Amino acid sequence: MDSPKKYTEANRIAWNEAMPLHQKANQSKWDDRFSTPGYSVIEAPELEQLRSLKLEGKSVAHLCCNNGVELMSIKNMGAGECVGFDISDIAIEEAQARAKKFGIDCRFMRTDVYDIPDQFNHQFDVVYISIGCLGWLPDLKAFFEKVSSLLRSSGMLFIYESHPFSEMLPSDDLKDADPLKIIDPYFKSEPYVELDGIDYVGKTNYKSEPQYWFVWTLSDIITSIINNDMKLIHFSEYREDISTMHRRTEEQKADIPLSYILIAEKEQDTH
Ligand SMILES: C[S@@+](CC[C@H](N)C(=O)[O-])C[C@H]1O[C@@H](n2cnc3c(N)ncnc32)[C@H](O)[C@@H]1O
Known about the structure:
Layout: H1 4-34, H2 46-51, E1 60-63, H3 69-76, E2 82-86, H4 89-101, E3 106-110, E4 124-130, H5 140-150, E5 151-162, E6 192-196, E7 207-213, H6 218-226, E8 230-238, H7 247-251, E9 259-266
Parallel strand pairs: 1-2, 1-4, 2-3, 4-5
Antiparallel strand pairs: 5-9, 6-7, 8-9
Helix pairs in contact: 1-4, 5-6
Bound molecules: S-adenosylmethionine (SAM).
């Protein structure tokens, strides 16, 4: 495979291209919502599972945090030190500006997740990953190695993601396709090279700079976690589409998995 930088840098450019469109559609909505003290965007079923981590006062890292609205919500739920990391310059600028505007004490750093500086090692009680992160990452093993290094002993990894099963089904863009018919592979070693824009917020159609999307199976994800000193303590699957790309499938009420929550605990440091 090519160097991971080839992919992450292309994805950075594509995300910088998309963010102004997301902002055009959503910026004032988020500003209105965060003007209410204590606002949180986090809902069931994620809310219940996040509460099980007893976030009060805990340090949280959000990887692939985009414009920071989830991390600011977690801060508003009572978390301690909160740091968000994202590769998109424009997403991070938006997150920093909103946190400052509403006095929400979160830090945001623009970086490729693979390059998060070592100064953050062992600094976090919780590493949080949500909706649409893992597919952008070319090397899952190296990613979970980084996650593990960020966690303190007995710290928690929390993932709320689209279910890999949904990768096989047509996205809503393919309007004429049967939303329950398997059209793509589950096992796929090469990334998809996408040229369609990623304005799933404002729904503008445009030809984008190339972006790379990686299909990770459940076993890729679970094995990479347990091989990096974390043990699985919770896994639940849901019928709800959280990607906004498979709404037509969800509407079929076919009882198939479209999202999941995984919680893993960093093993205690015995050194
Ligand atoms: C779909 S968003 C997910 C964010 C969040 N859950 C949300 O719904 O807004 C994906 C984010 O991953 C970021 N990203 C992609 N590759 C990355 C990388 N290698 N390092 C850090 N962030 C990355 C993108 O810039 C983008 O902001």
